[in-house]
Amino acid sequence: MTQSEPFYHIGYGRDDFGSRPPIIALLSGDPERASMIANTYLHDVRLLSEHRGLNSYLGVLPNGRPVLSATSGMGAPSLSIVVNEMVRVGIRAIIRVGTTGSIQPHVRTGSVVITHAAMCRQGAANDIAPVEYPAVADPFLTLTLVQAARDLHVAHHVGITASVDTFYEGQERAESSANPHLLRRLLGMTEEYRHLNILNYEMECGTLFKMGSVYGFAAACVCGVIAQRTEGERVMLEQKEAAVTGAIEIAVRAAGQFDVRPLTATA
Ligand code: URA
Question: How much is the pTM?
Answer without folding.
Answer: 0.96
